[in-house]
Amino acid sequence: MRKIKFRGLDRSGIWHYGAFAETINTSGKLYNMPSSLCAFIIDAHYDDKVELFYEFVGIETVGQYTGLIDKNGKEIYGGDILKIISNQKGLVGWSEEFAGFVLIVNRMLYPFEGLPELLEIIGNIHQNPELME
What we know:
By secondary structure, the chain is mainly beta. It is built from no helices and 13 strands. The protein has a six-stranded antiparallel sheet, with no helix packed on it. A five-stranded antiparallel sheet has the order 12-11-10-9-13, with no helix packed on it. A two-stranded antiparallel ribbon has the order 3-4. β3 (23-26) and β4 form a beta hairpin.
């Protein structure tokens, strides 16, 4: 079973990883996030209690972990730009048609089956959009 986790960029360009949430409930109060923001709730274990931390990130930067790693052992997330062994570039995205993550190369969709060992993360669409030109 693959691990379900997300990442997103905060305003200072730092990636945060954890569970995706649009609202936070603290001490019985429900807080809605501004529409341009969302929160990641990251848990850290100290002794016998769990502390919850959250960071605000831009909702447009949120990407889900695909459950796959590239040829260098890095986790592949939605929005990553990957180099294929043939030196082509592709963007990681979600396809309703395939009901899963795909690699988008020249507007064509390719399922990840058998591909990860041929792929290398070279950036992401949020910090390196010029790589897709």
